[in-house]
Amino acid sequence: MATFIDEVTLHLRAGSGGNGCCSVKREKFKPLAGPDGGNGGDGGDIVLVADPQVTTLLNYQHKPHRTSESGGFGMGDFRNGTTGEDLFLPVPVGTVVRDANGVELCDLAEAGMTFLAAEGGQGGLGNAALATTKRKAPGFALLGTEGEETSIILELKVVADVALVGFPSAGKSSLIAAMSAAKPKIADYPFTTLHPNLGVVQAGDYRYTVADVPGLIEGASEGKGLGLEFLRHVERCSALLHVLDCATLDPGRDPLSDLDVILAELEAYPVPPGQTPLLERPQLIALNKVDVPDARELAEFVRADLEGRGYRVFEVSAASHEGLRALTLALGQLVEENLARRAEEAEHRPRIVLRPKPVDELPFELKVEGGTYGPVYRILGQKPERWVAQTDFGNDEAVGYLADRLNKIGIEEALFKAGAQAGSTVVIGPGSGIVFDWEPTLTSAAEVMSSPRGTDSRLDENTRATRRERREAYFERMDAKAEAREELERERRAGLWTESVERYDDDFDDE
Fold first, then answer.
1. pLDDT classification of 176: cutoffs 50, 70, 90
2. Strand order in the sheet with 376-380
3. Hey, what's the torsion of the CAs at 405, 409, 415, 418, to 10 degrees?
4. What cofactor is needed (predicted)?
5. Looking at the structure, do residues 377 and 340 belong to the same domain, yes or no?
6. Under DSSP, is residue 35 helix (H, G, I), strand (E, B) or coil?
7. pLDDT tens digits for range 127-136
8. Would you say 70 is a known binding-site residue?
9. Does the annotation place 214 within a ligand binding site?
10. 313 and 175 share a domain?
């Protein structure tokens, strides 16, 4: 027999992004034709999907560890890595997703709703994508980031229109079997129902779902019996049907006292914010087992008291199907009224406004923490943390590129304002993170490279002068010669020279 599982813990690990490729294109007669390294592929996401065809979490109980596909590495000749395939996990409609601390993340209350549980890593760029007019031959590529790794809790809350509540052995399972095609376990001992049973009821033009909740006892809201474990399945129901046993032989029990106990437990159970309290929802009462003569007499006796409290009362028998027609029609009417009310509320529901982030908002947060050898400056933010994860610290050019990226978003200026000095400890990321000794004058790795960063001496352009440049240089030389002749002639006329200027002109031309 299949076990009913309504809460499981999933351990998810999304696919990692592939590394970019650092490559130089080589062809015949073009041994160095420029960078051609491809980008790495993105890792696959893990997505939860509310599927109406799925009714249990049993599959995840046996296989709680799920992993999506990682992205492929980039390759030469501009070949990008393959993108990891997303992993879609179908869950029953009415599943609540919580994190490891119990904080609610999402409520998959409608069919087709999706939730991104774990995001895949981002693929690194190849050196072809990093090439610019100033960095024509990058000697590095970016690494792919790791996929998100997390643990979540899936809690199933049965989605039904009507919930049957009552004491154990009140005949709820027999009643749902008589009203629908459901076949729950039925026996003559208490707590026969160990998990909720669902049944679809067709009454005239009404069609709705009924849930048989395990029996409640006094103290159920405090954890006694099975009530606390399954009371959460009543949260999604729009109407309640109190099934009262009129043929019980237990001393001290009668339909009125049973109802008072059930109402007290429903009132003590806290519902999530935004939901209607259980006792404020439409409620009907079914006096069950009236096929027994003594039970019929008791039902007729307490009917007036229950109607005096404002309840609609139906005398039914799951064995003989007496009174079921009127009961199912009344429940169908309640469900239809509730659907109409929900549709009206949806029309007046406030619109969700998505506000973009301010343009001047810094993409990082700087915190100053106390350390043993002085203050530690910690930088937190999605961008700087991702950039650090994509950097190959064994490549000086890649480290210089990281320094330029961090400087562009204002990290160095923020460190100056925070009082950081040369040699201060800077940590990027939470926890241990990546530790640097900050040197404000060193903004790149150009000082430790033999040539300017982003250049390759083998790919230098031809520096041969153009025809226009040669003509301008020729005219400059002619003007200089003419000026020299005039200077010699002035000196000769002043008596400084005895030889003719033509001789000096010949000597000047020989030079």
1. confident
2. 365-369, 376-380, 425-428, 434-437
3. -170
4. Mg(2+)
5. no
6. strand
7. 999 998 888 8
8. no
9. yes
10. yes
